[in-house]
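Key idea: predict the complex, not the pieces.
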Amino acid sequence: MMGEQSDTGKRPEMELETYFAAARDTAPVPDAALLGRVLMDAGRVRLPWHRRLVRRWREMRAAMGGAPAMAALGCALVVGLWLGVARPDGVALIAANVVGGDDAAVMVDVMAGDAFASLEGAF
Amino acid sequence: MAQSTTDEAGGAEDDALLQAVVDGDMRAARALSERHLARVLAHAAHLLGNAAEAEDVAQEAMLRLWRIAPDWMPGRARVSTWLYRVVANLCTDQLRRRRGVALDDVPEPADERPDVEVEMHRATRARALGHALMRLPERQRQAVVLRHLDGLGNARIAQIMEISVDAVESLLARGKRTLSSDLLDQREELGLHDG
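Result:
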């Protein structure tokens, strides 16, 4: 008796399932045209310019070695700026020691006299 | 459940793919589309009962996914859950726009398969279910489609519909009761017998 009642209750459920199965089997499948449109949309979507800028900056910072490298670079920049603007006396002295104190000492004449011709003759 | 484990893994993979899409990787866009587009399209078709409108909704849902990609928070929501919600909202809008158009005026999807009896019965059942679903209240329809056509569990449906599991069970029970009486009453009329 109980079994019959249970069967009676399950029957509509099972019949309903045949409808669900039919709907699942006949559901539309995306064709190549729809996939193409969706991908075209994906290709068009771009980050706004300010977001792109932030992203580039982060990438550049990571490529240069992260925060410590950026801090060192910042320090060097500030010191260089200060040296250029304040021109402390010691700087001229250091520069003289480093480059020999004479502008001519750092000039290189690549075509001095017949140097090029003599080089050519050497080969 | 095995499916939820697969879903979790799939969720992390989706997040990574979405990030790659932001970086302009079209292969990632294709992979994401292949993972979700069929489900999105089928869900929209079941909610709307119209394949052509479902295509528009599916395309729009995917477009919204691409647009939100730069702001996507990995691990916060699943792409599939988000898409189900977007599709449901788009379908609601579409049905509102369609209001006033008689149900019978909605074109049926073309069936180009061989005209054998089994196929005919299957198509008739699918069509009858489509019509019966459209007569259900919207939330009941959404719950029934998610459970019985998309095959999701009640907990997941509750998450998608942003309601409790009890509320999902109630929607499903009422929806199926209405569908049963609606469909089984017209079996003879549709020429559908046992099997």
